[in-house]
């Protein structure tokens, strides 16, 4: 069995910057992380071991007990910033600059008089941060949710980890159902996401099965796995090397490896090493004589 690795995979610069910032915190027990710093179980376990307080993303409406509050790479709304400041909290901000750009795009569309349509996952912390600063908006998860809107000016942006082909399909559906509306699209899909997806597409042409490494709550990792399935590839989403089972690879000639943008380098390396060991035990698939 051959093991092929995507040219672009794993941790993006926004996540790396957030990890560098949090490593510089001297007194973790005085800091509450406002949600999950990144959607990576191993990282969250390490933060807990260091003594950080971590608020569940579903309970962020409760004010943290510590004075210092660390804003995650997914960002928060301006309204949430104001609420925390008014409560006397000091913010340590690890918001990804590309998430900031998506916030700015939403405000630009709002200020220009557009009804804002956000293509993304409803309830995701990044999407929540964007829409909490909007009065009139709608979140669209898929083509099936697109409808005719009463507003005549529609402004469209995306959650930063949205696959480009998905965004294009939703935009086309919006245009088809609102032919008389003025549409304005601001591309807020981040470059690391685009690079990961392009590398995946190139790899999918060379393999018949895929391993996708990343946290269970990682939206971009799930999107990578979904794309593999859409292309008809046998797909396994794993969090670490321990999730791999040799029997899963029976009959597999070539397996590809990719990883979400919050996956640690060490995790990818461990998965790759385990795949290479498994590869030496997997018999080559039988081929019919011509």
Name a few traits of the molecule.
Cobalt-precorrin-4 Transmethylase, domain 1, four-stranded parallel sheet, 290 residues, 9 helices, 3 domains, alpha/beta
Question: How would you describe what is shown here?
Answer:
- The protein has 290 residues and is α/β, with parallel strands linked by helices.
- It has helices at residues 13-23, 41-50, 78-86, 97-111, 125-131, 164-177, 191-204, 219-230, 265-279, and strands at 2-5, 31-33, 53-54, 68-71, 90-93, 115-119, 137-140, 153-158, 182-185, 209-213, 234-238, 254-259.
- It has three domains: 2-9 and 192-279, 3-Layer(aba) Sandwich (Cobalt-precorrin-4 Transmethylase, domain 1); 13-96, Rossmann fold (3-Layer(aba) Sandwich), CATH 3.40.50.11270; 98-185, 4-hydroxy-3-methylbut-2-enyl diphosphate reductase, catalytic domain (Cobalt-precorrin-4 Transmethylase, domain 1).
- The chain is 37% helix and 18% strand.
- The strands form three sheets. The protein has a four-stranded parallel β-sheet, sandwiched between helices.
- Strand 2 (31-33), helix 2 and strand 3 (53-54) form a beta-alpha-beta unit.
- It is flat, with a radius of gyration of 21 Å.
- The two termini are 22 Å apart.
């Amino acid at each position: 069995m051959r093991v092929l690795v995507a040219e672009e995979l794993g941790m993006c610069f926004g996540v790396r910057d957030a990890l560098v910032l949090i490593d510089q915190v001297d007194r973790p027990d005085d800091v509450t992380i406002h949600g999950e710093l990144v959607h990576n179980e191993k990282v969250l376990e390490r933060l807990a071991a260091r003594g950080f307080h971590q608020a569940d993303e579903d309970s962020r409406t409760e004010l943290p007990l510590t004075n210092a509050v660390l804003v995650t790479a997914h960002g928060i709304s301006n309204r949430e910033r104001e609420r925390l400041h008014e409560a006397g909290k000091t913010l340590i901000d690890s918001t990804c600059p590309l998430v900031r750009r998506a916030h700015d795009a939403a405000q630009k569309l709002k200020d220009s008089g557009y009804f804002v349509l956000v293509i993304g996952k409803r309830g995701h912390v990044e999407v929540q941060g964007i829409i909490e600063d909007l009065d009139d908006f709608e979140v669209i998860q898929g083509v099936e949710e697109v409808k005719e809107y009463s507003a005549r000016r529609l402004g469209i942006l995306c959650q930063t980890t949205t696959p480009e082909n998905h965004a294009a399909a939703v935009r086309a559906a919006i245009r088809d159902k609102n032919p008389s509306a003025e549409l304005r699209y601001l591309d807020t899909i981040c470059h690391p996401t685009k690079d990961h997806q392009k590398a995946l597409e190139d790899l999918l042409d060379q393999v018949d099965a895929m391993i996708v490494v990343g946290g269970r709550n990682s939206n971009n990792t799930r999107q990578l796995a979904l794309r593999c399935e859409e292309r008809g590839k046998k797909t396994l989403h794993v969090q670490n090397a321990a999730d791999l089972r040799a029997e899963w690879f029976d009959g597999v000639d070539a397996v590809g490896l990719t990883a979400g943008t919050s996956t640690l380098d060490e995790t990818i390396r461990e998965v790759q090493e385990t795949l290479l060991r498994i590869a030496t035990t997997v018999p080559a698939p039988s081929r019919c004589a011509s």
